[in-house]
Design goal:
306 residues, alpha+beta, BirA Bifunctional Protein, domain 2, eight-stranded mixed β-sheet, three-stranded antiparallel β-sheet, 13 strands, binds adenosine monophosphate, binds magnesium ion
């Protein structure tokens, strides 16, 4: 029985977990210092991120009510901003990814996002925050995880601010559908891809007022071929616009009834934020080919894991 279940004891994971525990502390201290409040993760809810790619749903029936395991805290971040101005969460995400993603080295079915959101912020505000946060993290790690990084033979480069930006349109026109991978291999420092088209993303990223079909959002991409680090943007917060965007995607509005009622009656604040994948961040810091070594208990897509 045991041999059918994936379980690893690996030197790389041992080091990565030590680095990971520092990463969480440094990021958390950085955000608390900047006036953020940490909120507890939501694990089950009637609503969760619809995502822009197919996964299996984690469904739970409880007294006849349907709950979903959290795929991201996007909606709860908007709801939390009704009470607090700047929030973050180390949010466990369950995304039961398809087996095709088993060998990408970048996907797990269970991972953590450091998810944050700021009331009345612009995309530029949170992009600058992300840049400061990563520069601070890398500097601290060079001092505090010197030994671990030496064992891994990894030297972390400190990127310079502001990070380079390229629009989705420019990237796509130049490189075609593999734009992210090709740019990630070409670049030497983390860089931004901004302004995604509506069809690429979920309904909640804000559409430009004067540029229909394009979104005020961004991805941060690691260099050396490590790919996407984070996604974020400004959010749709007005009831009518949210409904229109959901209808454009032919979504079931009834399934989001409570969320929509709150948007209509309580009214959301304008906000911007992002979610950075912690295991992918650790993978980049450690220079691992495979994300499975960033954690003791990786859930590899399609595999039966402990
Ligand atoms: P998304 O909202 O889909 O862009 O996810 C936010 C961040 O979480 C991404 O930028 C990645 O860093 C990370 N992430 C998303 N999906 C996975 C996954 N299946 N395994 C590990 N990390 C992921
Ligand atoms: Mg993304």
């Amino acid at each position: 029985m045991l041999e059918e279940i994936y379980f690893q004891v690996d030197e790389r994971a041992k080091i990565a977990v030590k680095i990971g525990s520092k990463v969480r502390k440094i990021l958390s201290d950085f955000l608390l210092e900047r006036g953020f409040v940490e909120i507890a993760p939501v694990i089950i809810s009637p609503i969760t991120d619809p995502l822009a790619h197919p996964v299996f749903d984690g469904e739970i029936n409880y007294y006849g009510n349907k709950y979903y395991l959290t795929k991201s805290m996007i909606f709860h971040k908007q709801l939390a901003l009704l009470s607090l101005e700047k929030i973050f969460c180390f949010s466990p995400n369950i995304r039961l990814e398809l087996k095709d993603l088993e060998k990408t080295g970048r996907h797990l079915a269970e991972f953590t996002q450091l998810d944050l959101e700021v009331r009345n912020a612009s995309r530029e505000d949170v992009m600058e925050l992300a840049e400061d946060m990563l520069i601070h993290l890398f500097k601290k790690l060079r001092e505090e995880c010197k030994e671990e990084l030496e064992i891994l033979g990894r030297e972390i480069k400190i990127p310079s601010k502001p990070f380079k930006r390229i629009s989705f349109e420019e990237a796509y026109n130049k490189y075609g559908k593999d734009y992210e991978e090709m740019l990630s291999k070409e670049e030497k420092e983390p860089f931004w891809i901004i302004d995604f088209p509506k069809w690429k993303r979920e309904f909640y990223d804000k559409e430009y007022e004067d540029r229909k079909g394009w979104l005020v959002d961004m991805d941060l991409i690691y260099p050396e071929g490590f790919g996407e680090a984070l996604s974020g943007g400004e959010r749709e917060y007005e009831y009518e616009r949210i409904v229109r965007r959901m209808e454009e995607k032919s979504m079931n509005l009834q399934a989001f009834y409570a969320y929509l009622q709150i948007a209509r009656i309580a009214k959301f604040y304008p906000s911007a934020g992002f979610g950075i994948g912690i295991e992918r961040l650790i993978r980049y810091i450690c220079g691992f080919e495979d994300i499975r070594y960033t954690t003791l208990f990786p859930k590899i897509p399609g595999k039966y894991c402990i």
